[in-house]
Design goal:
This protein is α+β, with helices and mostly antiparallel strands. The chain has one domain: Beta-lactamase (3-Layer(aba) Sandwich). The protein is built from 8 helices and 11 strands. The strands form 4 sheets. It has a 5-stranded antiparallel β-sheet with strand order 2-1-11-10-9, with helices on both faces. A two-stranded antiparallel ribbon has the order 3-6. Strands 4-5 form a two-stranded antiparallel sheet. β1 and β2 form a beta hairpin. α3 crosses α4 and α3 packs across α7. It is globular and about 55 Å long. The N and C termini lie far apart (45 Å).
C-alpha cells in the first residue's frame, strides 16, 4: 500500500512538472500592449520575441526611415538649400508644423528634424525636391522596399500621415537594419536637439523619443510615429547584454504605451 502511495505521488508530481514549466514560460512573457511587436538580435538576426509580427498595419512616421534612405541614396548634396512651400502643408491630417511656408533651410537640416522630431513639412519638402517630384520619390520608396524584400509593405507618401503607408513588424526589421547602416541616419535620429535657423526666427527642436536620453539604453537608432489609424509606434536599437538589439512596437494604445512596451521588452530580454 505504501508503494502504491509513493507511486501515485511520483506520478502526480511528474504530471505537474510540464504544467508548472509551461505556466512559468507564460508568466515570464513581457507585457506588451501594442498590437504588434518584434525583437531581433541584430548580430545574429535571431528573432527573440514576436507578437502578430506579420500583421499588416499603418506605420505612421516610422516611414521617415525609408524617406531618409531615399534622400541619401539620391546622392544630392545635403548642403543645398530648400524652401518650404504651400505644397508641403499637410492637408490630410492638418498636422501642426513649426516651419512656416517660405522657410529656407539646408536639406541636411530638413533631414535632421524629419528624423529626430518627425517634422512633416521637412519630409514633404525633401520628397518634392527630387527627380520626378514627389511622385518619383514615392516610386523610389517602393523600389527600395522591394529591394529590401519588404514584401508586405506599401507606401504612398513620405511622411507616414497616410494610413495607406502599411508594413509589418517583421518587414520593419528589414528597413531598420538597412537604415542602421547609414551613419547620417543614426546620427540625426539619435541626437537630442537641433537649433534651426531659416524659419520664423530660431527654433529649437528636440527628439521625440524619451529613450535617447537614457544613457543605459545606448540608443543606436530610433524613430517614433503616431496617427489615429496607426496608434503609437516605435523603432529603437538598444544594447542587450552588449549586443545591438532591435525593437519594433506597432499600434500601442496611448502616448506612453509604446515606450513602456519597449522598456518591458528590454527588461525581459535582459533577464534571459
Amino acid at each position: 500500500m505504501l508503494k502504491f502511495h509513493l507511486f501515485f505521488i511520483v506520478f502526480i508530481f511528474a504530471s505537474l512538472v510540464p504544467l508548472i514549466a509551461h505556466a512559468k514560460r507564460v508568466a515570464s512573457k513581457p507585457v506588451v500592449q501594442a498590437r504588434a511587436a518584434i525583437a531581433v538580435d541584430l548580430t545574429s538576426g535571431r528573432t527573440l520575441y514576436a507578437k502578430h509580427a506579420d500583421e499588416r498595419v499603418p506605420i505612421a512616421s516610422l516611414t521617415k526611415l525609408l524617406t531618409a534612405m531615399v534622400v541619401l541614396d539620391s546622392k544630392r548634396s545635403l548642403l543645398k538649400p530648400a524652401r518650404i512651400t504651400d505644397a508641403d502643408v499637410d492637408r490630410l491630417k492638418w498636422s501642426r508644423s513649426r516651419l512656416p511656408v517660405g522657410s529656407l533651410l539646408l536639406r541636411k537640416t530638413m533631414l535632421h528634424i524629419a528624423l529626430m522630431s518627425s517634422e512633416n513639412r521637412a519630409a514633404y519638402a525633401l520628397s518634392r525636391d527630387y527627380p520626378g517630384g514627389r511622385a518619383g520619390f514615392v516610386r523610389a520608396m517602393n523600389r527600395t522596399a522591394k529591394r529590401l524584400h519588404m514584401n508586405r509593405s506599401y507606401f504612398v507618401d513620405p511622411t507616414g500621415l497616410s494610413p495607406h503607408n502599411v508594413s509589418t513588424a517583421r518587414d520593419l526589421t528589414k528597413l531598420a537594419r538597412a537604415a542602421y547602416r547609414y551613419p547620417v541616419i543614426r546620427d540625426y535620429a539619435t541626437s537630442h536637439q537641433k537649433l534651426v535657423l531659416g524659419g520664423a526666427g530660431p527654433l529649437m527642436y528636440r527628439n521625440t523619443d524619451p529613450l535617447v536620453y537614457r544613457a543605459s539604453w545606448r540608443v543606436g537608432l530610433q524613430k517614433t510615429g503616431f496617427t489615429n489609424e496607426a496608434g503609437h509606434c516605435l523603432i529603437v536599437v538598444t544594447q542587450v547584454h552588449g549586443r545591438p538589439t532591435l525593437l519594433v512596437i506597432l499600434g500601442a494604445p496611448n502616448a506612453h504605451a509604446h515606450v513602456q512596451d519597449a522598456v518591458n521588452l528590454r527588461s525581459w530580454l535582459m533577464k534571459r
